Amino acid sequence: MENEKKIVKAEILFSRKCNLKCSYCAMADGRENTLSVPKWIKGMHQLKDLGCQLIVFYGAEPLLEFEKLIEVLPYVENTLNIPTTIITNGSLVGTKSMLLRLYKEGAKSLSMSYDPAPIDIASEQKSSKAIDTLTWFKNLGENVRDVAAIATLTSQNYKLLPAMIKRMSNLGIWTFYDLYHFDRKQPGSKTSKIDYDLCFTSLDTNALVSVLTEVNDMKKRGYLVHMNQHYFDIIKAVNTSYYKWNCADFDEYPSWLTIDCDGSVYPCDDFQPKISKKFQVTQIVKNWEKFKKQTKSVTKETCPGCLWNTHISSHAIKSGATKGFIFDF
Length: 329
Hints:
The chain is α/β, with parallel strands linked by helices and 329 residues long. The protein contains 9 helices and 9 strands.
């Protein structure tokens, strides 16, 4: 079964600790990374056997588990030959020193949050670090594969997206975006509240589609935009006040996995339901069919749905709906 494409990507919540307190985030719950490095390595081999093409290390703040990260991430890049990226807020003391060590050991990609109009003080703090750190990392050497700024689009800032893309592209930085997701009370939600001033409504749909049409055209003209046509088409087809896309509605389920800081495997970083058996990344290959069966039904029945860019794009790549470039989520 080696290299059979059962999943397109894996997202690793490598730390649940964070030095920031973003008002909208529920990712940071203070938990330690409890899996040993040898077990993380074993888990990465399991993901390789599932055909994983991209592993994303984030969390809350992954650099708070640096001593493990410096061993695990380079192993994935250099030994398993699976591309990775790190998502960091960039605000820890010593961030550049840690990123430089990771680069020297094999890290080739860096992603950071950048909100065109800051959502709160922590959002502004992250955004202020992003351009400087991404530009610095990009210029470390020829082994850098890409750097990306991740924007959270809200009803207040989405019209600023084309200008952000132009600015980032001029600096050689890719732009990736997601729509603002609010707390819908699903288990494991990574959002902590509903801010109605930021939520999209049906009145925003036409204007949002107009902006994304412009963005899609910019991508075709060579601007650095991580968005494929399939995701754009999904946005056009839905009412943006309802996030109803459900991955379990499709035969491709699951096309990605989320691994928490204790090695637990879940359907999603935004949906971590209680199921009868707790699955571990170190044993996920032999338990694959059980994992699929148990989580698909509960996901279909109880997940409220989403419009997460990477998730929809992973499904599209696995299904063949888009040829997809692995970094073109």
